[in-house]
Design a protein that fits this description.
Globin-like, mainly alpha
Amino acid sequence: MTPEQITLVRSSFARVVPVARSTAALFYAHLFEAQPALRALFKGDMDDQGAKLLQMIGAAVGLLDKPQTLLPVLRQLGARHGGYGVQPAHYDAVGTALLKTLAQGLGPHFDAATREAWTTMYTLVATTMIDAAEQAAAALTPPQPAPAAVTA
């Protein structure tokens, strides 16, 4: 991400922080409206889940200029989410719900440049987490025996 994109993400996220609870509720409403089946992946209190979501986003936003710290955290998070049953295709729905939530919540402050900055950030987060989940799953999959040779 460019320094300008980091600034845009941080300044727009600062506008979300005071309304974090309602932002999280709006995000999940958008997500479950688009993908009702995803609701089954969420256990427990959704207010707590929303708080964790915004906390995680805030941590990522804070580390955007420190990829050496951010990327290992995202990899751990991705491996955990893979264990929860999150599939690569789910990340598209999450990204769409996030952008829709930000657009609705930020209104005119979510201009084209800010949307692009958030898209870039979410792409980094999602691709890192997906890659980590796939690596974790591959590490748990026992090697398959080679097929027996066929003799004539």
